[in-house]
Amino acid sequence: MNTQFKKGVLDLCVLNQLIREDRYGYELTELISRELEVTAGTLYLILKRIKDDGYVTTYLRESDSGPARKYYHLTEKGRDYLQKQKAEWLEFLEKAGKLLA
Amino acid sequence: MNTQFKKGVLDLCVLNQLIREDRYGYELTELISRELEVTAGTLYLILKRIKDDGYVTTYLRESDSGPARKYYHLTEKGRDYLQKQKAEWLEFLEKAGKLLA
DNA sequence: AATTACTATATTGCAATACATAATAGTATG
DNA sequence: CATACTATTATGTATTGCAATATAGTAATT
User: Fold this and answer.
1) Which residue is nearest nucleotide C8, judged by alpha carbon to C1' distance?
2) Which of A61, B15, B53, B99 could form a disulfide with A13 if both were Cys (CB 3.0 to 4.6 A apart)?
């Protein structure tokens, strides 16, 4: 899969998984990679980024099947960002679509 | 406009403009930037890349309104590449779409 | 029981790629 | 001379890929 296509969209995919419920990193890795080829390293970098940007907050919770899980929670700022970026993405698709028609 | 969204798609947009006729760089810059925000520098880098990759050939032709124009011609290899990448792009959109729904 | 191996989970460093920005330069025309 | 047309290149930045590391449980093997 063309690596470049994912640039900028991957973080939206991640944020979008957090709309309804908090999830932990490993879980997100599995979820996303069901559709797109993504390695854990890439995912965790994205998680770090969206946390640094204030789009998510995190908290630890023990697991009964391994190390503690770090859960990610979408903030109001993250929700706003996601909404606006999704709109921009659709707008981009429309314009690019014209050039690719 | 989110800079990252364009990664990997811009060169397809350029190649796609060459399907029916040869075009020169400045012309392509104008064409593409009607839809997407792109500067000449970026466009010329892409043109250099797709030429190095053998997707286009070039030739000079004088203009009656300025310096000579460098025309870009899509090769058979470029046509193949474009077709495959467009298919991959659509496939990517479908998968990303699921994650963004 | 002790050792080993494997799964679940998180993190980090370095390399590669593509776009942005800005500067340069040459030709023709008003 | 100023401006529009045309092409090129250098430097910076952001995002992903790949690979390695680390830790805690669980299962398997000796």
Assistant:
1) A66
2) B99
Burial A84-98 (b: 16+ CB within 10 A, else e): ebeeebeebeebbee
First to last CA, chain B: 21
Residue with structure tokens 């460098």?
Answer: B70
Domains along chain B with CATH numbers: 3-100 (1.10.10.10)
Q: Which of A3, A36, A92 sits opposite B96 (nearest CB)?
A: A36
Measured between beta carbons, the chain B residues lying within 8 angstroms of A100 are 9, 12-13, 16, 86, 89
pTM, entire model: 0.92
Tell me the mean pLDDT per 10 residues along chain B, length 101. Answer: 96 98 96 95 96 96 87 97 97 97 94
